[in-house]
Amino acid sequence: MSSSAPQDAGHRLWSVDEHLADVLGAVRPLEPIELQLLDAQGCVLVEDVTVPVALPPFDNSSMDGYAVRTADVQGASEEFPAVLTVVGDVAAGSGELPTVGPGEAARIMTGAPLPPGAEAVVPVEWTDGGTGGGAAAGMTPASAAPERAGGEVRVHRAAEARAHVRARGSDVQAGDLALAAGTVLGPPQVALLAAIGRGTVRVRPRPRVVVLSTGSELVQPGEPLTSGTIYDSNSFALAAAARDAGAIAYRVGAVADDADTLRSTIEDQLIRADLLVTTGGVSVGAYDVVKEALSSVGSAPSSGSEGSGEDDVDVDATRMDFRKLAMQPGKPQGFGTIGPDHTPLLALPGNPVSSYVSFELFVRPAIRALMGLPESEVRRPSVRAVLEADKALGSPVGRRQFLRGKYDAESGTVSPVGGSGSHLIAALAHADSLMVVPEEVTSVEPGTELEVILLG
């Protein structure tokens, strides 16, 4: 079956903002699903979650010690301790509870429910621990000395009402809003959901992002280099960046400069991709095969070929534009949708810095949009900072330049890291921000205020 050929939109320069708007305009949040709590980590809630039961659900002790009536320990001191009869143990998870009457106490553990009649908890360190000696450092384990659940305890300090007692509902009350729709579920949020008894939650799933690099010169790390070859760093960098953005990333090994091989690889990956990212092969060289390969991804069998045709792809299943952007690095870019589900594909340049900057500007926002995050959380945050440098920074006219920088929040300054070359990976590894030089600016003097995109 046929599909529309990729369109080369290189007859004009697209602005960074135009290209990003085109990408985000084609991306829709993924459909919500119900997931188990741990599977929902990193996902975005699609509905408000209210508290069904108060937390904590009962008054409980915040200390290991003795549950007492305040009147019984009033005025207690080491010289004149209050001597109380121990009526039993109250451990966390206890069912039947002893009642604490006048002149009595119950040994109580942290998190255990406050027994009837008790008004406060005195820490074990304020008592003799039932030993008849001085101040106790801790409790003897119940298994080692079960008799300590009885006998007497000497209390050396008074306690006010509700001392060391966590009140029922002091964390949240039944009916309170636990988490609002739009919340990203991190470990604390997962903990809260578990604490209120939620085993599953309705979320937008983490996008599945497939990353593949192209180039016959690429060798996998750990393998020996031969003449003319380099290690594939792009697919590792972009897969890691996709995970950092909140996606589930699948890294495909480097694909050789062969259109048929690349086309077959992409078609194989469509089944597990909500977003595809390629790097390399989008410029104008004789071996830049991404344009060629994407001209017929998912193309139909020719007339008379075998097959039922049930898997035929619509003629518009593949629509790719290859563009030149008014930016540096990252001038050549490709974007479109491919396959029967119109899966978004972003084709990034192959130079390491170009591909990473392009990811931050275009792919990361697409991932965050797929997650269903609000617009304010789709892009990286940016600040204004003063350039701290030994000399002026040059920038090509008509291009928005993104230079690697080191941002100092305390001083409000940013310093360049490395040069402007798009192959300087070491400099990128030491940068925590991108300095933005506007299109109309060709020179930036030290002391000039710049927009700085924070990468951390």
* Structural class by secondary-structure content: alpha/beta
Number of strand segments: 29
Question: How many strands, which pairing sense, and closed or not: the largest β-sheet?
Answer: 7 strands, mixed
Strand order of the largest sheet: 1-19-21-22-18-14-17
First and last CA, distance:
45 Å
Q: Which percent band covers the strand fraction?
A: 25-35%
How would you describe this protein?
This protein is an alpha/beta fold. Helices cover 16% and strands 29% of the residues. It has 8 helices and 29 strands. The strands form 8 sheets. A 7-stranded mixed β-sheet has the order 1-19-21-22-18-14-17, sandwiched between helices. It has a 5-stranded mixed β-sheet with strand order 9-6-8-7-10. Strand 21 (332-338) and strand 22 form a beta hairpin. Helix 1 (16-25) runs parallel beside helix 7 (352-370).
